[in-house]
Amino acid sequence: MTSTVLDHVAIGTHTLTDGWELFGGVLGGRWAYGGQSPGFWWGQVQFSAGPKIELLTPTGGPDSAFLERFLTARGPGPHHLNFIVPDIKAALSRVEAAGIEPVQVNLENLRWKEAFLRPRDAYGVVIQLAEQSGLPPEHPAPGELSVAGPSSAFTLVEHHVGDLAGATALFGSALEGDVVTASGSTAELTWDNGARLRLVETLEAGQQRSGGRTAGLHFRRDRAAFGADDLSLAGELAERLGVLLRLDR
């Protein structure tokens, strides 16, 4: 890894089956890797282009408290954006230079060093920074994972913010995204793995300028359009997962 990338969007849920059916079955995601961590289980699927999707579910005990709190307060939905960085100390220096204090900084594990940015500092979403050394863990795909449907590209993450200039500075300068368009109330950034983030400035009722919400995950099938049945099933599953889904026909 030679540059920072938006690696995956993590979605918290109590029910993994809906996620497998949506991101594997309808959207054609292929198993990447995953496994058990203290307090939660995680698994990732990858697409023909763009970032991965990670599903998180609590497994009990004190280490699951962060995810249980999230699900109790908000229900299923996007939990964090993960950025893999080549040098986490350099990344933390850029974040701190932007006036943001990282939390839960853990640099002791040589294979996986990480830190987090709180939603109030990261425009409404948790951001995980991680430096990964060596190959990711190899675990077999879970038996509940649906047979992958026609392949799709994960084309865009849309995130609404209250302060476009501040959010663009964070994702562009501190997180090393390339700003490819910036016009009026919108900016789009890309990373070397094909991940694309659209920031839209919209100050909703009661929203703080530092607040925001993930307003859409965009997918496009590689060789065929989504049919009416696909759109109906995807909409039903996305609602259960607390995800706003945009399928380009």
Q: Could you describe the 3D structure shown?
A:
This protein is α/β, with parallel strands linked by helices and 249 residues long. Helix content is 22%, strand content 39%. It is built from five helices and 14 strands. The chain has helices at residues 16-26, 65-74, 88-97, 164-174, 228-241; strands spanning 5-12, 30-37, 40-46, 52-58, 77-84, 103-106, 112-117, 126-132, 152-161, 178-183, 186-190, 196-201, 212-221, 245-248. Strands 2-3-4-1-5-8-7-6 form an eight-stranded mixed beta sheet. The protein is globular and about 50 Å long.
Structural class: alpha/beta
- Overall pLDDT score: 93
Instruction: Using the 3D structure, state the CATH architecture of the largest domain.
Output: Roll
Helix content: 10-25%
End-to-end gap: 33 Å
Strand content: 35-45%
For this structure, the CATH topology of the largest domain is 2,3-Dihydroxybiphenyl 1,2-Dioxygenase, domain 1
Oligomer: single chain
Quickly name the level 1 CATH class of the largest domain.
Alpha Beta
Count of domains: 2
Largest sheet: 8 strands, mixed
User: Could you state the CATH homologous superfamily of the largest domain?
Assistant: 2,3-Dihydroxybiphenyl 1,2-Dioxygenase, domain 1
Instruction: Provide the spatial order of strands within the biggest beta sheet.
Output: 2-3-4-1-5-8-7-6
The rough form would be described as: globular
What string gives the helices and strands in order?
EHEEEHEHEEEEHEEEEHE
- Give unreliable regions as ranges: none
Instruction: Work out the number of β strands.
Output: 14
> What is the radius of gyration?
17 Å
Specify the number of helices: 5
